[in-house]
C-alpha cells in the first residue's frame, strides 16, 4: 500500500490492528511503532507534563524520549517497540494536561 508518508511505503505487507487513544489503526505488522504511528497520521504522541507542549518522535533511535507512549500502565519509547496485533497505547500525562488547561 502506498501512503503519503515519508516514513512507510509498503505494498502487500500484513497489517495488524493497534489502538491509539481508543482509536483503531491498521499498521504494518512488525513495523517500528513510532514510524507506523506517524505513517497512520498521528502527529502528537504526548504533551509535556509541565507546559503541555506537543511532542512527537525526533531521533527515532531511543535517545530523546519525545515519542513516549503509555502501554499497560508503563511509559515506553514508541521508537523502541514493534507494532503487534492488539497493542493498546495512549498518550501519557493527558490527565495532567486536562487539569492544567481547566478542561477537567
Brief digest:
The chain is 14% helix and 25% strand. The protein has a three-stranded mixed sheet with strand order 2-1-7, with helices on one face. It has a two-stranded antiparallel sheet with strand order 3-4.
Explain the overall architecture.
The chain has helices at 33-39, 94-101; strands spanning 15-20, 23-28, 46-47, 54-55, 68-71, 74-77, 88-89. The strands form 3 sheets. It has a 3-stranded mixed sheet, covered by helices on one side. A two-stranded antiparallel ribbon has the order 3-4. Strands 5-6 form a two-stranded antiparallel sheet. It is built from 2 helices and 7 strands; from the N terminus they run E-E-H-E-E-E-E-E-H. Helix content is 14%, strand content 25%. A hairpin with a 6-residue loop joins strand 3 (46-47) and strand 4. It is globular and about 40 Å long. It is α+β, with helices and mostly antiparallel strands.
Unreliable spans are none
Amino-to-carboxy terminus distance: 40 Å
Q: If you compute it from the alpha carbons, what radius of gyration comes out, rounded to the nearest whole angstrom? A: 14 Å
Q: Biggest sheet: strands side by side, in what order?
A: 2-1-7
Structural class: alpha+beta
Q: Total number of β-strand segments?
A: 7
DSSP helix fraction: 10-25%
Question: What are its keywords?
Answer:
7 strands; alpha+beta; globular
